[in-house]
Specification:
There is one protein chain. By secondary structure, this protein is an alpha+beta fold. It has a domain of 70 residues: Alpha-Beta Complex (Peptide Deformylase). The strands form 3 sheets. The protein has a 3-stranded antiparallel beta sheet with strand order 1-2-3, covered by helices on one side. It has a two-stranded antiparallel ribbon with strand order 4-7. It has a two-stranded antiparallel sheet with strand order 5-6. The longest helix has 17 residues. The protein starts with 25 loop residues before the first helix and ends with a strand.
Amino acid sequence: MALLEIHTFPDSVLRQKAKPVTVFDQELDETAQSMLETMYFSGGIGLAAIQAGILKQIIVIDLKSGEEDTELREPHVFINPEILEKSGTTVSEEGCLSVIEFRAEVDRAEEITH
């Protein structure tokens, strides 16, 4: 796989609308694997395809991204993600690989159904 360029604010690609994925093939798998590799290399816990200039509805997440033992990682790939239900609220400080050196308190649902 290959490391991807992460676009940073105020790059106009970040304002584009991602399109649903309609073809599920080897290229899609390679894109997801490159996104995971880029996320791990960059020290993030999540990366949307749009952040890599890819206008597709793909998100990769690994809340255990920082684990030194790579066997403990739990990567997840979401294609055309949609939140169907959410409940509870939690607040935590978050950053973004596309907005360098900025962190903020963010309200999130405690649980979701996707």
